[in-house]
Every structure is written in structure tokens, then in C-alpha cells.
Amino acid sequence: MEFIVPTLLIEKTNSSDSKKAKVALSVFFNIMDAWRVKAKDQITLLGSPSESTYYKWKKGNVSSLSPDTLERISYVMGIYKGLGILFPTREQADAWPNKSNRDFNGLTAMEYMLKGSMINLWDVRRYIDAQRG
Predict the structure, then answer these.
(1) Following CA atoms 46, 31, 126, 115 in sequence, which dihedral angle do they give, to the nearest 10 degrees?
(2) Alpha carbon distances (Å) from 65 to 11, 33, 35, 77, 111
(3) Which of 59, 74, 78 is nearest to 20 (CA)?
(4) What mean pLDDT, rounded, does the chain reach?
(5) Which among 50, 73, 86, 119 would be 20 to 30 A from 61, CA to CA?
(6) Mean local confidence (pLDDT), 100-129
(7) Distances (CA, A) of 114 to 22, 30, 117
(8) pTM listed for this prediction
(9) Residue of 28, 25, 2, 24 lying closest to 11 (CA atoms)
(10) For residue 85, how many other CB atoms are within 10 A of its CB?
């Protein structure tokens, strides 16, 4: 399944905040499904909204997202897109976040991202971009 949405689409679209939020979350949740990420870990990647907020978002009930949450989703989208370019198959690309990596001190990229800081998401995005050259 291919559902790449350019990262800047979310930022540059003239549509309402609600529509931007719904598009961003839809793409995020599709990526999380592809990477087989548990709900509690998705919450961390989104910046730790409350569980009730997370489940509302999961159902498509969202009026807007904070700039922080949009930035986090943007990093995840960039990682997903970069992996799709680096690997010959989507299956290999989707498996990569859960494989240990010496460049993350033996952690998987997912474990590294789940430390919770946006810097960790940025680091993984930058790492993928560097691998692309």
C-alpha cells in the first residue's frame, strides 16, 4: 500500500485546520500500521496527548493539531518516505524501524524515537536523509 503525502502538503494547503489535521493523522496512522507500532508508542511519537485525545484522533475527530504535533508527524512522514527511497521493497522499508542499529547504540530506530523528544525524531530523519546522500 502506497500512501505518500508530501510533507509540505500539510503545511501549505489552504484548507481548514481541521482538514490539515485529518490528513496528517490519517497518514500518520497508516504509517504506524505499516510499521506495526502499538497505540502507547504512537501516543509517545505524537508528543504524548491524553489517551482520550489519541482515540478521538484515531476516529477522525480532530479540529486542529498543535505545531509540535504537526512537526512530529512531518518527521515520521519524512522517515517513511526516505525509507521507501532507500530500500528496494516497501516490506524492507517498513521493517527497518524495528531492526537494531549500531548507529543508534544498538537500539532500533523506533526505540530511539520513543525516547520521546522531538530531537530523536529529527535525528532519525536526518540519519535517513544522510543515507540517501
Answers:
(1) 40
(2) 12, 20, 23, 16, 24
(3) 74
(4) 91
(5) 119
(6) 96
(7) 23, 18, 8
(8) 0.87
(9) 24
(10) 11
pLDDT at 16: 80
Give CA–CA dist 99/108, Å, rounded.
Answer: 5
Each residue's pLDDT tens digit, 71-102: 999 999 999 999 999 999 999 999 999 999 99
Assess contact for 110 and 98: CB atoms under 8 A: yes
Placement of cell 522517515 in the chain: 79
**Sequence letter at residue 55:** Y
For the chain, the straight-line distance linking the first and the last C-alpha, in angstroms and rounded, comes to 26
